Every structure is written in structure tokens, then in C-alpha cells.
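Input C-alpha cells:
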């Protein structure tokens, strides 16, 4: 007799089959394969602004993590050519000028290269929700859905780590924990690279992830 799956596993299997059935391009079925053991991808995007509906991705940085090692030889660094150009305000933040991003790849090509780089590995990032929202907006026309990989938020890992160190009365009072990236990196004793550079931010998120895993 066939062994029944536990409800949670059954639901995950059913969801996977439903997503595969509705996948817009079967060439990307590999993203639904079992993830390689002990591997992740840390990523970050630089954008023309913070509006996930109207702003655009202009650079992507991603690096693979294997165990406790950041595989800097296995990285992805892309400039993406926006359709609407780059404002002076955004240039002041990420230092990417109009002529820099004009040499970038089209967004569709960038998404395909990123998905091949990620494979089925879980994704790691700092305030990853924004990056995923921006990426999914670009990926949806290609796949009819967003990135299916599990997502791991570094600031949430850090919050849980700090919360367990608080005395009981502060836990009950829901004492605030500073989640700013510079604070997080300093508290963990990790080096800060130049911010607002997609690959640098991805590497720093990877460093924080590895350190927090060791502390858990």
C-alpha cells in the first residue's frame, strides 16, 4: 500500500506540481528541483528608486554560498539597461550613471542569467522582500510566476539571535532591536564594504548569514 505524505509535505508537493503545470517556460523547470545540500545564493539589486511598481533594476549582484564558504569565484554581477533612464537622485546613491547602465543587458536576458545562476538554491538577502518584488515583476512575463525558491531574511535571523539574548522583562516589553545593516555587521564583528553596490551588498549578506548560522 502506498504511504501517505504528511499534510505539510503533501501540500508542498501539490503546490510544486501546480506551479510546474503553470510554468510559462519549461526550460526553467530546474528551479523546482531539490536544492543542493548546504548551498544558498545571496543576492542584491540596485534600482532607480524604491517603488516596486514603477522603478527599475539597474544592477544585480549574486554569490553562491557552500557550507561556511562564500564562493566569490562563483558570482554573478550584471548591469541592467533600464527603459526610463536614471535620475540624478539615484545616481547619488548607487553611483551608476546613465552611460554606465546604457551598456547593460536587457532585463529579460538579466533575469534568465540570474535564474540559471540561482538554480534551485534558497535565496539569502538583507531586506530581501524588496529585491524579490523587483525581480518577480521582471520574471512574471517570462514564467507566469515569481521565483519559487525559499527565501531567508538576514535581518530576521539577526532579530531572533538578539531577542534570545534579552532578559525576560525586555522580551515581554518587546524591546526594540536595531536592524540597520551597519549596526548588524558591526555587532557581528564583520567587515563593511561600500554599500549600494549590488555585489558588495550580496557578499555582506552572505557573511552575516554564515555568522548567524554559526551562532544559532
Amino acid at each position: 500500500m502506498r504511504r501517505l505524505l504528511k499534510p505539510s509535505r503533501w501540500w508542498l508537493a501539490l503546490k510544486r506540481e501546480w506551479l510546474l503545470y503553470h510554468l510559462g517556460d519549461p526550460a526553467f523547470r530546474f528551479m523546482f528541483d531539490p536544492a543542493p545540500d548546504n548551498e544558498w545564493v545571496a543576492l542584491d539589486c540596485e534600482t532607480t528608486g524604491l517603488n516596486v511598481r514603477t522603478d527599475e533594476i539597474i544592477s544585480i549582484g549574486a554569490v553562491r554560498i557552500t557550507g561556511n564558504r562564500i564562493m566569490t569565484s562563483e558570482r554573478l554581477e550584471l548591469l541592467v539597461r533600464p527603459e526610463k533612464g536614471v535620475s540624478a537622485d539615484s545616481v547619488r546613491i548607487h553611483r551608476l550613471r546613465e552611460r554606465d547602465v546604457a551598456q547593460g543587458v536587457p532585463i529579460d536576458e538579466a533575469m534568465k542569467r540570474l535564474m540559471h545562476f540561482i538554480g534551485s538554491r534558497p535565496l539569502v538577502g538583507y531586506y530581501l522582500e524588496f529585491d524579490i518584488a523587483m525581480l518577480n515583476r521582471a520574471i512574471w512575463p517570462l514564467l507566469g510566476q515569481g521565483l519559487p525558491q525559499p527565501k531567508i531574511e538576514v535581518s530576521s535571523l539577526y532579530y531572533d539571535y538578539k531577542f534570545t539574548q534579552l532578559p525576560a522583562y525586555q522580551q515581554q516589553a518587546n524591546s526594540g532591536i536595531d536592524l540597520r545593516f551597519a549596526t548588524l555587521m558591526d555587532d557581528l564583528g564583520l567587515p563593511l564594504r561600500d554599500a549600494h553596490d549590488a555585489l558588495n551588498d550580496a557578499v555582506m549578506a552572505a557573511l552575516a548569514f554564515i555568522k548567524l548560522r554559526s551562532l544559532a
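The chain has one domain: 24-215. The longest strand covers residues 69-79.
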